[in-house]
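Q: I'm building a small set of examples for a reading group on sequence design. Run inverse folding on the following structure and report the sequence directly after it, with nothing in between.
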């Protein structure tokens, strides 16, 4: 609950962007499934936006009781087997693909549950210019610590993958999707100051006493960390399932 509360403002911005994209792609009666619905906020926002056929999926044991009144159907398992084949016009995943140990299995499962010409729409982290630069810093003894701190914030035991355009294309192509569009953008889950506080100071005991400098450092690094050129850290992907004969 604390996690979702912490990121709620930025999460709503992301979800409203997703709804604007869906409004351009489908009508309000389309069958939509939100894969990895989390606390169900996106389902609720879709309902308020006028969509009437919304389903959701989460792992077994998740409490989805708060969205029962908004969702047409709720599915819960670990392998998507409870979701019927060919039953949906659109499958949405907002920051899900980076968390799964078998992304190919997930994308293949999405292909299965979509009808012919169905659409997959998802957001997922991608490798940035800063990421590539930090890989080079890892080779320099005096600067290696900076790169380690950066990478620790980009991947973890929960955040398994950062994708590239090529890897996304391969996943989609192998599952029978024709890539329509990939939009690269900058997306921050927290205000910049919060990132600096956590990853630079709170996780480094020797620097904790300097936490009061967070605002200054955030201001200095904002042009880089909040820039699409240096840190286009999110891909918004829209692809259509190729019709088979």
């Amino acid at each position: 609950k604390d996690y979702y509360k912490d990121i709620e403002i930025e999460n709503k911005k992301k979800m409203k962007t997703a709804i604007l994209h869906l409004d351009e792609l489908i009508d309000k009666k389309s069958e939509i499934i939100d894969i990895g619905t989390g606390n169900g906020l996106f389902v609720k926002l879709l309902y308020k936006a006028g969509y009437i056929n919304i389903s959701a999926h989460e792992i077994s044991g998740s409490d989805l009781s708060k969205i029962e009144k908004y969702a047409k159907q709720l599915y819960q398992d670990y392998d998507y087997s409870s979701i019927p084949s060919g039953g949906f016009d659109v499958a949405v995943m907002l920051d899900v693909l980076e968390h799964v140990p078998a992304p190919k299995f997930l994308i293949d499962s999405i292909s299965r549950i979509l009808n012919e010409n169905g659409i997959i729409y998802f957001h997922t982290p991608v490798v940035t210019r800063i990421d590539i630069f930090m890989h080079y810093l890892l080779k320099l003894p005096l600067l290696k610590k900076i790169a380690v701190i950066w990478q620790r914030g980009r991947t973890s035991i929960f955040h398994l993958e950062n994708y590239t355009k090529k890897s996304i294309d391969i996943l989609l192509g192998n599952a029978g999707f024709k890539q329509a569009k990939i939009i690269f953008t900058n997306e921050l889950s927290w205000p910049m100051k919060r990132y600096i506080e956590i990853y630079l100071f709170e996780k480094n005991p020797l620097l904790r006493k300097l936490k009061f400098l967070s605002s200054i450092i955030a201001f200095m690094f904002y042009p880089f960390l909040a820039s699409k050129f240096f840190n286009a850290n999110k891909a918004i992907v829209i692809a259509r399932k190729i019709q088979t004969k």
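The longest strand covers residues 114-125.
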